Amino acid sequence: MENETQEAKKPLMKSLREAILPIKEGDGIVIRATKNAGFGLFMILFSCVSVAVLVAMCMAL
């Protein structure tokens, strides 16, 4: 029960980050940097696609 409340209190970005590319304690510095860069690129791509879909929907109306 307590674990569920902690999951509910996590910010959206943090829970999304842990779901996509989780960082383990055994990961080295290079692996951590690669995972952080990969998540950053994923968020940029996701944002661009979201904006493109929004613009396409607005133009269709």
Short description:
The chain crosses the membrane at residues 39-60. The chain has helices spanning 2-9, 12-20, 29-60.
Radius of gyration: 16 Å
Shape: flat
Tell me the strand percentage band.
under 5%
Q: What gap, in angstroms, lies between the N and C termini?
A: 46 Å
Total beta strand runs: 0
* Strand and helix order: HHH
- Can you give the mean pLDDT? 89
What share of residues is helical? over 70%
- Give me the secondary-structure category: mainly alpha
What does this structure look like?
The structure is a single chain. This protein has 61 residues and is mainly alpha-helical. It has 3 helices and no strands. It is flat. The mean pLDDT is 89.
